[in-house]
Design goal:
The chain has about 170 residues and is mainly α. The chain is built from 7 helices and no strands. The termini are far apart.
C-alpha cells in the first residue's frame, strides 16, 4: 500500500504486520522524496529547504540504501559548490551554468507538481464526489495528504520555490 502509516490519524498507533512484528510499526508511504537523486542534486547545488520540508526530506533518507544516504552526507560535508566555487570564482559562465541546473531542477519539480495534481489530487476529488459525504474524522484528515505523509501541494510548491530561490544573480 502506498499510503503512509506514520503520522496517519487513521492509525495513530501504526500498523501490525502479521508475521513481522507483534508491535505496530509506522512507515511513511512511497514518495519521490525517497529518491537519492533529488537529495543529491539539492546537496550539490546548495538548495536549502524550509524547516518542515527539510525535516521530512531528512526522514525520507531512512528509506534509501545506506550507501546512497552516505553519498548524500558526503556531498553535504564537501566544500559548497555554490559558495566555494561558483561565487568565489566570479566567473559569469559558471554562474549561468549553475543557474541553468537550478532552473532545470525547478522545472522537473514543477512537472512533478503537475503530475501529482492531475493524477492524485484531481482523481481524489472526483472519487470524493462518488462516495458518501460523511467520512469518519481520521479519514477526512487524510484528504490532501501525499503518499509520504505531507500536505502534498504545499510541500511540492515549497521545494520547487526553494530551488528557484537558490538561483544566483551577478551581485550575490
Amino acid at each position: 500500500m502506498m499510503l503512509n502509516w506514520k503520522d496517519n490519524p487513521a492509525m495513530p498507533a501504526g500498523l501490525i504486520y502479521e508475521g513481522v512484528s507483534g508491535e505496530p510499526l509506522k512507515y511513511s508511504g512511497g514518495s519521490a522524496a525517497q529518491s537519492s537523486v533529488f537529495h543529491a542534486f539539492d546537496a550539490f547545488l546548495g538548495v536549502r529547504h524550509s524547516k518542515g520540508s527539510a525535516e521530512f526530506l531528512n526522514r525520507m533518507r531512512d528509506y534509501m540504501p545506506p550507501s546512497h544516504k552516505a553519498f548524500i552526507e558526503e556531498i553535504h560535508l564537501a566544500p559548497s559548490l555554490r559558495d566555494h566555487h561558483i561565487l568565489a570564482s566570479g566567473n559569469g559562465q559558471f554562474l549561468a551554468a549553475y543557474n541553468q541546473c537550478l532552473e532545470a531542477l525547478a522545472e522537473l519539480r514543477s512537472y512533478h507538481l503537475t503530475v501529482m495534481t492531475k493524477y492524485i489530487v484531481i482523481a481524489a476529488a472526483k472519487a470524493k464526489g462518488k462516495r458518501p459525504s460523511h467520512l469518519p474524522g481520521p479519514l477526512q484528515a487524510l484528504e490532501g495528504m501525499g503518499t509520504g505523509g505531507t500536505v502534498v501541494l504545499s510541500f511540492l510548491k515549497s521545494v520547487r520555490d526553494k530551488t528557484l530561490e537558490a538561483i544566483l544573480h551577478q551581485s550575490d
